[in-house]
Amino acid sequence: MASVIVIGTQWGDEGKGKIVDLLGEYAHIIVRFQGGNNAGHTICVGDEKFILHIIPSGILHQNKLCLIGNGVVIDPNVLVNGEIKGLKERGIQIDSTRLKISEKAHLIMPYHKLLDALKEQAKSPDKKIGTTGRGIGPCYEDKVGRNGIRICDLSNPDFFMEKLRDNLEEKNFLIQKKYNAEPLSPEKIYDEYMKLSETILPLMDNISAIVYKARKEEKHILFEGAQGTQLDIDHGTYPFVTSSNTVSANACIGSGIGPTDIDFVLGICKAYTTRVGAGPFPTELEDSVGHHLQEKGNEFGATTGRKRRCGWLDGVVLNDAIRLNSVNGLAITKADVLSGLNPIKLCVKYGLNNVETLCMPPIASDIGQLKCLYKDFAGWDKDISKIKNPDDLPKEVLDYIKGIEDFSGVPVCVLSLGVDREQTLIFKNPFTMSEKIHN
Ligand code: GDP
Ligand code: IMO
Ligand code: MG
Hints:
Blueprint: E1 3-8, H1 16-24, E2 29-32, E3 41-45, E4 48-52, E5 65-68, E6 73-74, H2 76-89, E7 99-102, E8 106-107, H3 110-122, H4 136-144, H5 157-178, H6 186-200, E9 204-205, H7 207-216, E10 221-224, H8 249-253, E11 264-270, E12 273-275, H9 288-296, E13 309-311, E14 313-314, H10 315-325, E15 329-333, E16 344-352, E17 355-357, H11 364-367, E18 371-377, H12 395-408, E19 412-416, E20 424-426, H13 430-438
Parallel strand pairs: 1-10, 1-11, 2-5, 2-10, 5-7, 6-8, 7-9, 11-15, 14-16, 15-19
Antiparallel strand pairs: 3-4, 12-13, 16-17, 16-18, 19-20
Bound molecules: guanosine-5'-diphosphate (GDP), 6-O-phosphoryl inosine monophosphate and magnesium ion (MG).
Guanosine-5'-diphosphate binds next to helix 1 and strand 3.
C-alpha cells in the first residue's frame, strides 16, 4: 500500500498529466486536490490526445476510481458539458463507479469568471497576472471569505438560491459600480446550475471517507497536483501565482486526510523551464535557445493556448520545490527537447546586488533583477525519443541527469522522452519504492 503525491516543481506544465496517467496503472484511486480548470493536463496514448482540466488523469485506465477532493474549485459547466460529455463521446465510461466529487468542493460561479476578467482588465500592464480567466482567484476568495457556494448546496435548491441572491447583491454592485459592466441575473444562473446538478449530484460523495477506507484496505492512492510550486499562493512568486496551495501538503487538506498517510512525493520537473502568464522568470531565454525550446517542446498552454515562455532549468527553483514539498524522487520530462543544444545549462545560484544566494527572494521586483550563475553540461545531437533501454542513452544525457541528482540530492525515478505513455523510462517506481522506504 502506498499514497504517492505528484506535484509540479516549477511554474506548472511540467508533464504531471503524462506521469499521473503512467503511474495510474499501478494505483487503485487517483485524486485531484486543488486548483480547477486553470489546469490543463495532457495525456497521449497512441494517436489519441486528451487534455484534462478537472477530472483526474487516471480516468483513461478502466476500473480506476477518480476522485475530486474538497480543495478543488469546480466549474460545473466545464465539468459536465465539456469534460464528462467529451470523454463519454470518446468511449470513456463516466459514472459514480469511476468518478466521485467532494460534497465540500466549491463551485465556480459565472460572477467569478466575470470578475476574474474585469479585475485583470482593470490592472495596469505591469500588474496584470495573466490569469487563465477561469474564475479561480475570485472563487477561492469567496471560499476563504466564507461566502462560497459548494457542491452540496446544489442538493437544496432554496438554500442555493438564497446564497446566490446574497452573493449577487454584492457582486453586481461591484460589477456595475466599479467595473461599469452588465449585472448578472440570479434566475438565469439558478436554472443553469439546477440543470447541471442532475449530472453532478449522483457523483457527490464524502471523499475523505473514501480515501480513508482505501488506506485501511491497503490500496495504492495517487494524488495529482495541479500548477507548480512557484505558483503556490504562499510559497510562489507572489503575486504572480495562482490562488491555491500547490505544494504537496495540500494533498492532505484538499482531500481530507492527515500527513502521516503520505508515503512518497514525486516531483515532476521539466528538463528546462517554462512559464505561461506574467511574472518573474530568472532563467528565461529570449534568444535562439529559447526559440528552440518553445518550438521543439511545442510549448503552448494546454488551457489557454498561449505561447509558454522558455528558459534553462533552474536549480534554485528545483531545490526550493524539493524543500517545500518533501520531494522523495524526481520525474524529469521533455529531455528529448534538449537534443541539438550545446551546452546545456543548469542555474546553480543567483546573484542579487553583487550578493550570491541559493534562495528565491520573496519580492517579485527583486526576482526580476536576479543574475543567474550556470553550470554547463555537454549537449547531445542524437534523437533520444525512441530509446527504450537506459543503456542506450548517450553519456551526455546520463551526465545531465546525474548533475541534476547531485545538485538536488534527490534520485531521478522517471525519465520522460516523448509525449506518449510508451516514451518513458522508469528507473524506480514510486509505488513499490515507497514500500521499501517505509519497511
Ligand atoms: P501538466 O500541466 O503538468 O500536465 O503538463 P501539460 O500537459 O500542460 O504540458 C506538458 C506538455 O508536454 C504536454 O503537451 C505533453 O504532451 C508534453 N510532454 C510531456 N512529457 C513529454 C516529454 O517527455 N517529451 C515531450 N516532447 N513532450 C512531453
Ligand atoms: P497545470 O496544472 C501553468 C498560471 C496562469 C497565471 C497564474 C494565475 O496545467 O500545470 P489563475 O487562472 O490560476 O488565477 O492564473 O497561474 N497557471 C498555470 N500555469 N500551468 C497551470 O496548470 C496553471 N494554472 C494557472 O497562467 O500566470
Ligand atoms: Mg498544464
